[in-house]
Amino acid sequence: MSWGTELWDQFDNLEKHTQWGIDFVEKYTKFVKERSEIELNYARQIRNLSKKYQPKKKEEDDNKYTWCRAFHSTLNELNDYAGQHELIAENMTSQIIAELMRYAQEIKTERKAHFHDGRKAQQQVEASWKQLESCKRKFERDCKEADRAQQYFEKLDADINVTKADVEKARQQAQMRHQMASDSKNEYSSCLQKFNQEQNEHYYTIIPNIFQKIQAMEEKRIERMGESLKTFAEVDRQILPIIGKCLDGITQVAESIEPKNDSSQVIESYKSGFEPPGDVEFEDYGQAMKRTVSETSLTNSRSDNKADRSSKGKSKTLWPFIKKNKGSNPEDFSHLPPEQRRKKLQAKIDDINKDIQKEMDQRDALTKMKEVYVKNPQMGDPNSVDPRLAEIAHNIEKLQAEAQKFEGWLAEVEGRMPVKSDPLKRTSVLYETQNSTPPTNNNCAQDRESPDGSYTEEPSSEVQSKVQPETAESGDEFDDADEEMLPTIGTCKALYPFEGANEGTISVVEGELLYVIEEDKGDGWTRIRRNEEEEGYVPTSYVEVFLDSNAKDVFSWRRVFLSEDS
Q1: Using one digit for the tens of pLDDT, what is the confidence trace for 78-98?
Q2: Whole-angstrom Cα distance, residue 398 to residue 381?
Q3: What pTM does this model have?
């Protein structure tokens, strides 16, 4: 099908389409240029890597071992391997980039000439049309003037009061106007015939010829694109045999390693040649040896006692927390309020699912490629796809496990999101907080971080008057019954429910009032107490703290005292 006959009225669209084709050629040229730059950078990095691990002068003696020689040979082969990637970049630059840049300039010039001829032909038709319109208007005007002159003559001729001279003059004027109208008619007819001839030639000869040339130019451009794509593949295919030789060389030097020979070389390198020493003769001094306790045994005994004391001391530790790195956020976003945490976890799950989908798409594509290789062995080895498929399967497994982990955290958060409900009414803060039943879910979650620092109870002479006497028996849960609790420094109100699933944390319900016994040290956790048996850490953002006026001074003094004592 021809553009000249089918697209005779699509001059502007053809102009846009051919310009888009040229832009595509330039875009593809830029793509190949960036690909060649990637090959050059990769080759440069491989060369730098090979150079970095080349043996130094002091390591030249290592060549006596076959495994060292194999590694050095591998570095040399890797250097040649980098050279082949440089060759890819060089061939792409000379065979594709340079050719396409030159061709782009040629096609731009050709396209400009074709559309210039088309515009010129269009202007000629438009000029002929304007001339036809002018002749037509002149003919119409002269006809109207002739009619008026004829009517004026007939009016005077019928009037008996008009002189014969005036009637003759009107008759001559009417004849002159009729003659002008006749001349205009002939001129209009001539212009119309000329325009129709030019228009017919324009749409059936000139424009088809121009569009035919543009069509040939576009088909040639498409053909050149196909040739460039083929060259793009051939440039890679040409170096495959040499790269295969480099890899074969690495395989050969790997197979040349001789463990027995290398182990024998160690003997040759470090053998001293001396005979082993003989037996030591007995020397009798006639005195019995007195057994004494060595310093080593005493040291060991002391260290054992110290270890026992250390183990006892550890048994007093209530919360063996893991120290957190300041400034880093936990993986499960537990430092955030529930709603923000849920959003973060959901976004993380979505990202992981996207990564899983990408891996699955790659797996499907490789599977199809392997099927093609099985049906057409000349296109490639089907087994060459298996390592990549195994790697993708491992990646999918890993991502699915990670997604399952985050989904567990998300389910945990959605199960404990704050619910709008009436707060619990407490008539006596002290009594009800000491006798409230702790939440049942207080198990340690393996994937959660604990707050900063650990606490070992310190002996104190002060006894808190607010503590109920019935809780004195709770000290039997620990090894040291003489230890006393830290004093309270204020109170707090729970803004959100917190399950306290980690060891060292405590569960709270929304609206609950509790005692504060340790301020936030900057790690996002506050230590609180419900009664003598229940105390632990909660996120600072989950509670509203009300410190006593003198508690801050006492707490700061105590921290200084403990640091100096340690």
Answers
A1: 999 999 999 999 999 999 999
A2: 28
A3: 0.43
